[in-house]
Design goal:
single chain; Rossmann fold; five-stranded parallel beta sheet; 8% strand
């Protein structure tokens, strides 16, 4: 089985549509980061390009097409990602997609393109993609993968059939993680990953769990008017800035949810919840909303322009340390 255990329903639904000859020409796979959208897209690409798929639709893994795809040289497959991690997808990359869709399939089947993260297209690239979507070619499937579909042009979203993914149930996620990681506190890892199993696995493999905890401690200290925003910014500049801002955005989003409702759904992270709840009780709700907008703008700038990360982090962290407190 190539797709993840919690993706059975969307997988079976698409395979039924495939057998009925009703596959769309463009699919937008959306949902939180770290839950397996890209893995699903890859599994679907292998399935459509395989010459002898299983009854369940999975790729056989040993036909000529599967061997070419494994080697990254299948002529009917294309992957578009930022040339540099965290940067923008450029217009020339999307123009090559248009050229690819105009060709006939070499193996008389599907042509498949995966574009991710789709929200990282710059404005020119997004407009170029729109032209391709307006004139879809037969037997071509474009898979857009996005954790922030609201950042895509509305006209792009409207020309794609949307498939939204949610995080698996906690028990299912823990069972899968235990099958992947030995001798680790998977419950703590899943807590730090906000319920996203692939993020938890990545954190375990790369030591990001310590970076996560250190970053959250810095946020807590600055909120208590302790610590130095400039020193923290210097520390953050040495790590993966996009990852850190992603965590920060998630923490602030959860603070808003905790401040807005005494028992928000889908927020069962144990000790992490308690830490975020303590911050949410300390800070004004409107100020958190405004800061989240600033955070999301900072993420956009870091992804799409030549902004100085050190100065960006300094400005954010100074603002964070100065957020107004709730009245007693």
């Amino acid at each position: 089985m190539e797709y993840l255990p919690w993706q059975t329903d969307p997988w079976q639904s698409l395979q039924q549509r495939r057998r009925a000859g009703r596959m769309p020409h463009a699919l937008l796979l959306s949902g939180p980061a770290g839950i397996g959208k890209y893995a699903f897209a890859q599994a679907l690409a292998r399935s459509l390009l395989c010459q002898s798929p299983t009854e369940a639709g999975s790729a056989c893994g040993h036909c000529k097409a599967c061997e070419l795809l494994a080697a990254g040289s299948h002529p009917d497959w294309m992957s578009i990602v930022p040339e540099e991690e965290g940067k923008a997808i450029k217009v020339d990359q999307v123009r090559s997609l248009a050229e690819f869709t105009a060709l006939h399939a070499h193996y008389s089947g599907y042509k498949v393109i995966i574009l991710q993260p789709a929200e990282h297209m710059n404005h020119a690239a997004a407009n170029s993609l729109l032209k391709t979507l307006e004139e879809p070619s037969a037997d071509t499937l474009l898979l857009l993968v996005s954790a922030q579909p609201q950042r895509l042009l509305a006209t792009i979203r409207s020309r794609c059939q949307q498939l939204h993914f949610t995080a698996p149930a906690k028990g299912e996620a823990l069972t899968w993680l235990r099958s992947q990681i030995a001798n680790a506190d998977v419950e703590h890892l899943l807590e730090m990953a906000s319920g996203a199993p692939l993020t938890a696995l990545k954190m375990a493999d790369s030591g990001l769990d310590k970076v996560f905890d250190d970053s959250l401690k810095s946020i807590e200290s600055l909120s208590s008017r302790q610590g130095d925003p400039l020193r923290v910014a210097s520390d953050w500049q040495k790590q993966d800035g996009m990852q850190t801002l992603h965590w920060f955005s998630g923490w602030v989003t959860d603070m808003i949810r905790l401040a807005s409702s005494p028992n928000p759904p889908h927020l069962d992270y144990g000790a992490l919840r308690q830490r975020l709840q303590a911050l949410a009780k300390r800070l004004e709700l409107n100020a958190l909303h405004r800061f989240l907008e600033q955070l999301n703008e900072a993420r956009r700038l870091l992804a799409t322009s030549q902004v100085n990360p050190q100065l960006l982090f300094e400005e954010l962290l100074v603002r964070w340390s100065a957020l107004p407190r709730r009245q007693a």
